[in-house]
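Workshop exercise sheet. Pairs work together: one partner reads the sequence aloud, the other fills in the structure field after running the prediction. Swap roles for the next sheet.
Pair: D.N. / O.F.
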Amino acid sequence: MYVSNGTPQQLADEAAAILESISDGFFSVNADWQFVYLNQRAERLLGVMRHEAAGKSIWEMFPGLAGSTFEPVYREAMREHATAEVTAYYPEHHKWYEVRIAPTAAGLSFYFRDVSAQVATQQALRESERNFRLMADSVPQIIWIVMASGEAVYFNRQWDDYTGVPIASSTPADVANQFVHPDDQGITMTAWAQAYEHHHAFHVEHRIRSKTGEYRWFLVRAEPFLNGEGRIERWFGTSTDIHEEKTVKMALEVAERRHAFQLALADRIRPLLDPEEVTAVACELLGVRLGARRVAYAEADDSGATLSLKRDWTDGSMASLAGMSLTLDDFGVAVVQILRAGRNLVIDDVLRESAALPHIANYSALGIRAVLAIPLMKDGRLRAVLSVHDDAVHHWTDEQLAMAEDMVDRTWFAVDSARAQAGLRDADRRKDEFLAMLAHELRNPLAPIGAAAQLLSMGRLDEGRVRHTSQIIGRQVAHMTHLIDDLLDVSRVTRGLVELDNEPLDMRHVVQDAIEQVAPLIQARRHRLQTFMAPDTTRVMGDKKRLVQVVTNILNNAAKYTPEGGTITLRSGIRNERVTIEIADDGIGMTPDLTAHVFELFAQAERSSDRSAGGLGLGLALVRSLVELHGGSVSCDSAGPGQGSRFCVSLPRLADTAPVRSSGGAAAAAPAGQALHLLVVDDNADAAAMLALVLESLGHRVGVEHDSHAALARARQERFDACILDIGLPDMDGNELAQRLRAQPESRDAVLIAITGYGHESDRRQSLAAGFAHHLVKPADMDQLTAILAQVARS
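Structure field:
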């Protein structure tokens, strides 16, 4: 430290030199406030010379101090003989002064400077900050400033208004944890770290929680401010509410993805023909789209209690459930009730689902930790369930739920369509096979008939050969008639044109008559027929002819498809107030696929590899239709090929009140009487000639016409006892011809007999209304015609 050893004058000079060298203005006053000293800087700042101020007080020199901000500070410093500081505006000079006061032995010393420029700058800064805050608070965005560390510097009023919480976080992670949606925190912190590392703008879209607890989407942007060393000093950012735009955009994106999934699903499954392949492909497509572990599509049984899975899809991390059957109750009654009510089942974690916890072992056995199940309801019944599985906790989104719902509906439609197409293809195949069989069956009798006709045309046969040839023709015609009758029966029954002649019947009589009809076939094939009849009365209300046809067809079926020497068992019984007839054989049996279709039209020929059994496969279709007309049901089962078959007919039992018709054969045909004069009218010349030959061989006198008008004219010239007319005549059909014959006096009393190919009940009613007494279907039963003519002769 320098210590001067000079005289007092020298010391004073040194002090003055120091005071003159400083940049601040300096003056001192004594206890009476009179100026003692002013340096040159003070003269310039105050605009006064030293000699002008000498001996004067500061209050005289600067009257503006009185009442100013400076006065109380100055007086207190003098009074307390203490240091003081003051910065204030002096209006007379239009300047701001910063003054520091220090006490001296004689009074006070003042150091001051003109700080007008600094004050103006500070005021401008404050004004700028005020304007900034006003602007920031007026915009709809949240505006914020944080330090490089993330410490909050400024958040505008919009933040407080939205969140209801003043910002008090010190790091970005604090802000994210407190306010950002949990699903968005990861992407937010990743974007922040990248922006900080690379010194580029921060940009992210995330959801921020409001004071009501609602989350809304915001677009967040921030720019870094770098210091002179190129380091981030702070961030200036905005958070803009984009919730409406974002939700609309997200909805459009979801709709586009959903539509793309629908198109992809439709394109993939449209060409598929196998229902199982449809479900497998649909499960795979959904699983890949959802990023699932396993997708299974299962169909429910009629009770809705069991699900059957044919094929499923997995990503390889979970085991396949293909081929399994699952009982829904094993997964919780409450869970099942949701599905059976047609509601979606959404479980993010089975360990947190109270309804599933009691059955957690069943979920664990299948590796299920999270499950999404979509029920498919049709006609108020659970038909199928789509299940999406995960082996870890999984939050199922609305978009995933919507895609799964799309998959269920579209897959069911595609499966249903594939099955329908398969059914059509199968029906078409069976139709083709039926037509081939029909051609085969019709050609069989035509061959011997043609050969017999050729043999007869040679004219060199003795009476025995002629009789044998005639018998061959008769048998083959009877066979063809049986085939055609079956076809007509099926047509009438399936179109609802059959009218039952119902009466109380004892099924024992029906069974007896059926056995009589089938006995020749059973004997020819050397089968053993065992019958076990119920001791109780097996009474039903039905049409005896049709019920005999039912039992006969089933027995015929058993006899044909059982190898020679087999056993056929017939049992009758009472079960739940219904009469049952069971017919079992130890024949060739059936596959499960055939048992499912055996009562359908054209379902024949799969049962045997050859055509030796014959027939058109119509008999069982007739059986089902006729049994259902009687309010009953018929079923079929077989243990498989070579294991025989069993058919069961069930009919409503009738109470023991009404009398029952006894079994009896048809009345014997009346013997032929005297010769009759007959008129045969048929446009088929061969048919007319053959019928005339047969009638003449019986001793009758026969006239033949092929035209209706010629027949009318001949009936006026000759008196006929009976006229045998075809219905399908050209120009004038048989019904109109009959009416005209009835109108002519010469033929009014003739018995009119229709022989026609039209055999419906409506055809019979129409012919009787036209005046016919009898209606026979071609080829006519000659025994029946002979009996009619015998009755005409007697009358």
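Discussion prompt: The longest strand covers residues 215-226. What would you look at next?
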